[in-house]
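Dear H.,

Thanks for agreeing to be a second pair of eyes. The structure we're designing against is below in token form, covering all 176 positions.
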């Protein structure tokens, strides 16, 4: 499921609200800054996010049927300190990845109200990361050499990538 594109949300009901509540609970327990529905086995185009920026501005919400516009990704190699990224779907590992510095997220809320968030820095990175999940792409799929080679070794060693393999963030502690 993690490598399959998600489908648009068409039904806004109690079941969707419960899913979003559960996703916030899972994201917070992990702890993580974002969680996409495909990461919890639901192939829908939505993700939750929770981040406080450098100005102490909290950003917490759900993006349903999002669209994302990004600035060009800067040329060059990812910085191993500044561009480090992790994922609850590849727990316990972090790799550097270049991302666009700015993005604009457009989506709707649980009440089908449209919103737009211009994002920079880490918030833009979070939106790009979660949006990728909705398109069936993990951040490790974007890594170049030598990190892609390391990901393959880790995947094989841990027997990941097989159907039906699951873990519970905040419970199984694979993210540590």
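And this is the sequence the design step returned. I haven't edited it by hand at all.
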């Amino acid at each position: 499921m993690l490598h399959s594109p998600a489908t648009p949300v068409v039904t806004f009901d109690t079941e969707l609200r419960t899913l979003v509540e559960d996703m916030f609970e899972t994201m917070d327990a992990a702890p993580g800054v974002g969680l996409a529905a495909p990461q919890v086995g639901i192939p829908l185009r939505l993700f939750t996010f929770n981040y406080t920026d450098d100005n102490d501005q909290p950003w917490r919400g759900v993006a349903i049927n999002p669209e994302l516009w990004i600035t060009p990704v800067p040329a060059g190699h990812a910085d191993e300190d500044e561009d480090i990224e992790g994922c609850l779907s590849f727990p316990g590992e972090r790799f550097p990845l270049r991302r666009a510095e700015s993005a604009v997220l457009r989506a709707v809320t649980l009440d089908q109200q449209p919103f737009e968030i211009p994002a920079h820095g880490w918030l833009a990175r979070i939106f790009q990361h979660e949006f990728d999940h909705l398109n069936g792409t993990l951040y490790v799929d974007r890594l170049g050499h030598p990190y892609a080679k390391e990901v393959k070794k880790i995947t094989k060693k841990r027997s990941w990538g097989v159907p039906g393999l699951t873990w519970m963030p905040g419970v199984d502690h694979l993210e540590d």
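Two observations from my side: The two ends are 24 Å apart (CA to CA). The longest helix spans residues 14-29.

Warmly,
E.
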